[in-house]
């Protein structure tokens, strides 16, 4: 039995030590906002915050996680979609199919926590998640909007 701090709640999970955190979150805890995309840490659909850093949860085995580790999923980013990134995503109408969006939002939130006023170059370098629909321009616009308090879009340098 492992104890995990997910979204501020300690949860007991029974799974093999090599089970990826992604599957623990989805199948054992029942939080399905974190998506499976590729399973090899390339696409970013499974991105979560792990001890304050954006991480691909498909590559973190349960056996390497302790109760002192802090895991935040898209469900834990805000209880009512009031996080500035979530608000900007809706305002800019970023999603097309929407599948990658929870991972994109988690990556954007982590970026803005480290760099509250990113340039276009900063965004392009930090946002390595794949969007098959190609909404990258809207993603960049939403990150700038969130950085500017959600009211207006910004132009990075």
From TrEMBL:
<dbReference type="GO" id="GO:0016491">
    <property type="term" value="F:oxidoreductase activity"/>
</dbReference>
<dbReference type="InterPro" id="IPR051452">
    <property type="entry name" value="Diverse_Oxidoreductases"/>
</dbReference>
<dbReference type="Pfam" id="PF01799">
    <property type="entry name" value="Fer2_2"/>
</dbReference>
<dbReference type="InterPro" id="IPR036884">
    <property type="entry name" value="2Fe-2S-bd_dom_sf"/>
</dbReference>
<dbReference type="InterPro" id="IPR006058">
    <property type="entry name" value="2Fe2S_fd_BS"/>
</dbReference>
<keyword id="KW-0560">Oxidoreductase</keyword>
<dbReference type="InterPro" id="IPR002888">
    <property type="entry name" value="2Fe-2S-bd"/>
</dbReference>
<dbReference type="GO" id="GO:0051537">
    <property type="term" value="F:2 iron, 2 sulfur cluster binding"/>
</dbReference>
<keyword id="KW-0479">Metal-binding</keyword>
<dbReference type="Pfam" id="PF00111">
    <property type="entry name" value="Fer2"/>
</dbReference>
<dbReference type="InterPro" id="IPR001041">
    <property type="entry name" value="2Fe-2S_ferredoxin-type"/>
</dbReference>
<dbReference type="InterPro" id="IPR036010">
    <property type="entry name" value="2Fe-2S_ferredoxin-like_sf"/>
</dbReference>
<keyword id="KW-0001">2Fe-2S</keyword>
<feature type="domain" description="2Fe-2S ferredoxin-type">
    <location>
        <begin position="1"/>
        <end position="77"/>
    </location>
</feature>
<keyword id="KW-0411">Iron-sulfur</keyword>
<keyword id="KW-0408">Iron</keyword>
<dbReference type="InterPro" id="IPR012675">
    <property type="entry name" value="Beta-grasp_dom_sf"/>
</dbReference>
<dbReference type="GO" id="GO:0046872">
    <property type="term" value="F:metal ion binding"/>
</dbReference>
<protein>
    <submittedName>
        <fullName>Isoquinoline 1-oxidoreductase, alpha subunit</fullName>
    </submittedName>
</protein>
């Amino acid at each position: 039995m492992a104890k995990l701090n997910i979204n501020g709640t300690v949860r007991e999970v029974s799974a093999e030590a090599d089970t990826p955190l992604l599957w623990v979150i989805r199948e054992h805890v029942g939080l399905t906002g974190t998506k499976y995309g590729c399973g090899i840490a390339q696409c970013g659909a499974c991105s979560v915050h792990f001890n304050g850093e954006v991480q691909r949860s498909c590559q973190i085995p349960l056996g390497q996680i302790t109760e002192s580790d802090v895991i935040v999923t898209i469900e834990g980013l805000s209880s009512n979609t009031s996080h500035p990134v979530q608000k900007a995503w809706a305002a800019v109408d970023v999603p097309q199919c929407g599948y990658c969006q929870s991972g994109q939002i988690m990556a954007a939130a982590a970026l803005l926590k480290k760099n509250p006023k990113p340039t276009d170059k900063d965004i392009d370098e930090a946002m390595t998640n794949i969007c098959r629909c190609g909404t990258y321009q809207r993603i960049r616009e939403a990150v700038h909007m969130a950085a500017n308090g959600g009211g207006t879009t910004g132009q990075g340098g």
